[in-house]
Amino acid sequence: MRERELIKIDRNGTKHFRVWTCPKCGGKGKDSAWSKSGWYCFKCGGTGIFEHIEKEYTPEYLAKQAEKNRRKAEQEIADRKAAYEADPVKSYREVRFGDSGILYVVTEPNTYSIKEDLKADGAKWRPQMSRWTFTERPKKWQTVGIRFEDLYHVNEYGVVALIDKPEYQAVDEMIGKGKGE
Ligand SMILES: [Zn+2]
C-alpha cells in the first residue's frame, strides 16, 4: 500500500497529499491506551487505514502566514484600545460599574442586619467585593466611592482587567478592613 500520494502543489507551494495511514493511531489500528474501549482505534475501526488529505507548507508560506496573523492580532488590540478610548463607559458597564465609573461601597457596620433596607434603597450586592454598593451616592448610608480606574485598567491586549488583585482585597485595603461586615 502506498503511504501517500502527491495530488497537487498549489500556488503557495503547498503540497497536498492523499494519505491512507490513520492519523489517530498512526496505522497501528489498536493500542493498549484504548484497552478500556476494546483496544481498537475508533477512527479507522482497527484497520489502521483512514484516507485523508495532508498538507505540507513551505517555510516561506508559513513565515508569511505568521506575519499576517501577527499583524491581525496587533490590529485587534489597537481596535480594542481605540474602542475603550472612544467609549470608556462601555467598559464600566462591562464590569457593572454604572455609568459614572464610580461605585459607592457601603461601609456601615453590620450590613447583614440592614440588608433589606439597603436593598429597598436600591443597593446591589456585589459578590466580587463582598459588599453592598450603590451607583449613586446615597444620602442615608455611609459609603466610600471607588473609581473604576482604582480597580481596573485596559491591559496590553486592550482588554479591561483587574489591576493587580481581586476586587474584595483591593476594596478592603482602600476602605480599611473590618468595616461594613
Ligand atoms: Zn486508526
User: Portion of residues in helices?
Assistant: 25-40%
Strand content: 15-25%
Count of distinct structural domains: 2
Q: From the alpha carbons, calculate the radius of gyration and give it in angstroms.
A: 29 Å
Summarize, please.
It is built from 5 helices and 9 strands. The protein is α+β, with helices and mostly antiparallel strands and 181 residues long.
Question: What does it look like?
Answer:
The mean pLDDT is 91. The chain is 30% helix and 24% strand. The chain folds into two domains: 4-57, no CATH class; 76-175, no CATH class. The strands form three sheets. A four-stranded antiparallel sheet has the order 5-6-4-7. It has a three-stranded antiparallel sheet with strand order 1-2-3, with no helix packed on it. Helix 1 crosses helix 2. The protein is of the alpha+beta class and 181 residues long. It binds zinc ion (ZN). Residues 22, 24-25, 29, 41, 43-44, 48, 50 line the site of zinc ion.
Q: Secondary structure elements and their pairing?
A:
Blueprint: E1 4-9, E2 15-21, E3 49-56, H1 59-86, H2 88-94, E4 102-106, H3 115-120, E5 124-126, E6 131-134, E7 143-147, H4 148-151, E8 152-154, E9 160-162, H5 167-175
Antiparallel strand pairs: 1-2, 2-3, 4-6, 4-7, 5-6, 8-9
The structure holds zinc ion.
Zinc ion binds next to loops.
Highlighted features:
181 residues; alpha+beta; elongated; 3-stranded antiparallel β-sheet; 4-stranded antiparallel β-sheet; binds zinc ion
